């Protein structure tokens, strides 16, 4: 049996701190019985707000509880790590303004930016990541264009999905600064959006504050349809931050604002500005993710019957749907077979982010623990192995 689930790390830190389950449960606002089930791996840590509360009770970071996602000997992890080392160095060079002449001409640079976006559209971050160091440095040589804000955006998204949230934040900051120099409201909104998503889970209040400032700027540019898409996206990120901070009324208010924008814009004909896919369908998917965070699992399953994601042109939106449904099914403890089907669909939509996501690992670890009293299904064992989890 694996000790890689989040509960095992909660138990480890609790014992290091010399705290009882009763004490930690009280500090985190949980019942002692629920904490006991988390530590045993019978129940997963299903909500970001619970992770934040446990981290605060134990005086550690959420990253300490999530641990390193995936087996460090996995070729996926090795490939990601090798690329990330070069990305880190490139960002240091940008910070130091130590730039060499570009290796790409203007036309080649523009084509490379579009290719990078195409790789994000399919969530192929392992192909994208090795290209990012040279793209970042070349893009910085083209002031007055959108090259740097776009490549920094791609960098932040890739790093976050490959499990390097600590580096995703400085990449997003590069995007924010570049968007201000460009003075394009839509790209300013896009940069603010990814910045809020890159912040640590503990910083939900900061994320919401940044989002509020961005919203006031975007309102002034609401005549621009692209800026309005980003206005809606920032409302969505603010709704998620509010849910993590357990501010349900604020979450509902931001969702309502996003829905108003989506109702007038409609679903995009294609992936939308900067692959945002902003419209009523995407609002539905975000609401499912936010209701999952709020523990409204019944609502999530009901909503899943009201939308089809087969034709959505952005891979991470399809994955979000299947992850919300899979996590909601797994919550009951009695529908793990159905949950596994949805998780397998999420994996097919975007394999690398799925396998490198610590929340995914915790869900599957919990399902493995529950299956110990009976034979572990072959397909569940296979998924566990791909995630670096021992099924026995």
Structure overview:
α2 crosses α4 and α16 runs parallel beside α18. Among the domains are: 61 residues, 434 Repressor (Amino-terminal Domain) (Orthogonal Bundle), CATH 1.10.260; 112 residues, Serine Threonine Protein Phosphatase 5, Tetratricopeptide repeat. The chain is built from 22 helices and no strands. The model has no long low-confidence stretch (mean pLDDT 88). With 392 residues, the protein is mostly helical.
Provide a concise account of the structure shown:
The chain has 392 residues and is mainly α. It is built from 22 helices and no strands. α17 packs across α18 (315-331).
Chain-wise SSE layout:
Blueprint: H1 6-17, H2 21-28, H3 32-40, H4 48-58, H5 62-66, H6 75-95, H7 106-121, H8 125-128, H9 132-139, H10 147-161, H11 165-182, H12 185-198, H13 204-219, H14 225-244, H15 248-265, H16 280-293, H17 297-304, H18 315-331, H19 336-349, H20 351-355, H21 358-370, H22 378-386
Helix pairs in contact: 1-3, 2-3, 2-4, 6-9, 7-9, 7-10, 9-10, 10-11, 10-12, 11-12, 12-13, 12-14, 13-14, 14-15, 14-16, 15-16, 16-17, 16-18, 17-18, 18-19, 21-22
Report the order of strands and helices: HHHHHHHHHHHHHHHHHHHHHH
Strand content: under 5%
Alpha-beta classification: mainly alpha
**Number of helical runs?**
22
Whole-angstrom Rg: 21 Å
Write down the CATH class of the domain at 72-183.
Mainly Alpha
Helix percentage range: over 70%
Q: Name the shape in a single word.
A: globular
Q: Low-confidence segments, ≥5 residues, pLDDT <50?
A: none
CATH level-3 fold name of the domain at 72-183: Serine Threonine Protein Phosphatase 5, Tetratricopeptide repeat
Number of strands: 0
Oligomer state of the chains in this structure: single chain
Gap from first CA to last CA: 5 Å
Instruction: Determine the mean pLDDT.
Output: 88
Named CATH architecture of the domain at 72-183: Alpha Horseshoe
Main sheet: strands, sense, barrel: none
């Amino acid at each position: 049996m694996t000790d890689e689930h989040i509960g095992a790390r909660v138990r480890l830190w609790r014992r290091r701190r010399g705290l009882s389950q009763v004490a930690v449960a009280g500090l985190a606002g949980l019942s002692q019985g629920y904490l006991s089930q988390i530590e045993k791996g019978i129940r997963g840590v299903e909500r970001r707000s619970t992770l934040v509360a446990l981290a605060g009770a134990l005086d550690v970071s959420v990253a300490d509880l999530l641990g390193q996602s995936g087996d460090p000997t996995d070729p996926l992890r090795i490939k990601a790590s090798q690329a990330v080392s070069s990305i880190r160095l490139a960002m240091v060079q940008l910070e130091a303004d130590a730039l060499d002449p570009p290796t790409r001409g203007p036309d080649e640079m523009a084509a490379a930016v579009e290719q990078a976006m195409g790789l994000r559209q399919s969530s192929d971050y392992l192909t994208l990541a090795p290209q990012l160091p040279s793209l970042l440095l070349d893009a910085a040589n083209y002031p007055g264009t959108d090259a740097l804000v776009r490549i920094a955006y791609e960098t932040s998204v890739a790093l976050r999905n490959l499990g390097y949230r600590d580096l995703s934040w400085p990449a997003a900051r590069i995007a924010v600064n570049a968007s201000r120099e460009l003075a394009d409201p839509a790209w300013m909104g896009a940069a603010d959006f990814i910045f809020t998503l890159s912040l640590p889970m503990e910083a939900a209040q900061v994320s919401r504050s940044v989002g509020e400032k961005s919203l006031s700027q975007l309102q002034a540019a609401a005549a621009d349809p692209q800026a309005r898409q980003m206005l809606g996206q920032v409302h969505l990120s603010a709704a998620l931050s509010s849910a993590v901070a357990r501010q349900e009324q604020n979450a509902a208010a931001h969702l309502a604002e996003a829905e108003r924008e989506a109702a007038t814009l409609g679903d995009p004909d294609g992936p939308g500005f900067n692959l945002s896919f902003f419209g009523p369908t995407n609002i539905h998917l975000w609401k499912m993710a936010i209701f999952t965070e709020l523990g409204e699992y019944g609502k999530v399953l009901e909503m899943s019957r009201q939308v089809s994601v087969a034709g959505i042109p952005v891979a991470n939106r399809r994955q979000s749907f299947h992850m919300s449904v899979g996590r909601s099914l797994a919550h009951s403890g009695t529908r793990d077979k159905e949950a596994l089907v949805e998780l397998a669909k999420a994996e097919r939509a975007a394999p690398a982010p799925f396998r490198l996501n610590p929340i995914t690992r915790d869900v599957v670890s919990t399902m493995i623990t529950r299956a110990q009293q009976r034979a572990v299904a072959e397909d569940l064992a296979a998924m566990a192995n791909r995630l670096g989890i021992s099924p026995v």
